[in-house]
Amino acid sequence: MRVALGKELRALREQKKRTAEADGSDPSTWTAEAVSTRLEFSRSKLSRVEAGEIPLPKLADLEALLNEYGVTDLDERDDLKRMQLDSLKVDPVTSYRAFLPSGMPRYLGLERDSIRIRGYENNAVHGLLQAEIYAAAQMNSARVVEERTSEAVQQGIEARMQRKALLVEDREVHIILTENTLRTCVGDAEVMRAQYAEIIRLCALDNVDVQIIPEKLPTYRAGWNFTVLEFEELDSVVQSDGYRSTTMFSKPADVGLLARQFDAMAKAAPGPSETPRILKDLEEELWK
């Protein structure tokens, strides 16, 4: 959460700099050093907070920054205050979706800024790989249970499809799925055939690798889903979805453990070149 808060604060400051450039005022007044000087922070404090290197321990410092950046929306201020408090906790932080602005987890902002994504899923197809028909079937099946409106479901589908723009950008994406995930019927046979075809299509992209761990392969499997995000200048973070919550790990020990789990599974599973064949065999067995 410390990394996420730093990125939010940097985005607010850079917006002020862009506004200054647009209206002809001096953009240098919105460098991290200039803001730190005005608020009587140490010279490098704000830069290090924005980089996720150090926390912002005082709520008063956050209030001062929000005032400096002209943040008046009470919901946005409250959300950033919660992030600041969560960033001070030692244990992994769970941020509940109900608290997030516009219903969109801040994780997505980190995902957009990453340079490498490594994801593991043992329950459903990873969101970045989902075909629209699969996403729709998955969300509609949970609609009554989760008491979601038709509009909310449609917005969720659209948001998931928008995420896939990441796959055509200059970013390395490596996803591991268990065979059991691909055997679990979501919707019907038509949906599953379309999902298999979408994974095969994405496998053809130069920057996307997908591996499948066969059911009968006697190897290590992590017990829960997670995604490792790597950045050009910031430390890596790991995200894991649970019921109605997203947990973000940023401690080096936690990130290192989950990264090693991913590497172990990637080493043991058939290579990405085998994925189309595995999917075609499963389609022939299950969905013809």
In short:
The chain is an alpha/beta fold.
What is the topology?
Blueprint (H helix, E strand, L loop, with lengths): L1 H22 L8 H7 L6 H6 L8 H10 L5 H14 L5 E4 L10 H7 L2 E6 L10 H10 L1 H4 L3 H14 L8 E7 H5 L5 H15 L4 E6 L12 E5 L6 E6 L2 E5 L2 H17 L6 H12 L2
Parallel strand pairs: 2-3, 3-4
Antiparallel strand pairs: 1-7, 2-5, 5-6, 6-7
Helix pairs in contact: 1-5, 4-5, 7-9, 7-11, 11-13
Protein architecture, described:
- The protein is elongated, with a radius of gyration of 21 Å.
- The chain contains 13 helices and seven strands.
- Strands 1-7-6-5-2-3-4 form a seven-stranded mixed sheet, with helices on both faces.
- The termini are far apart.
- Strand 6 and strand 7 (245-249) form a beta hairpin.
- It has helices at residues 2-23, 32-38, 45-50, 59-68, 74-87, 107-113, 132-141, 143-146, 150-163, 179-183, 189-203, 252-268, 275-286, and strands spanning 93-96, 116-121, 172-178, 208-213, 226-230, 237-242, 245-249.
- With 288 residues, it is α/β, with parallel strands linked by helices.
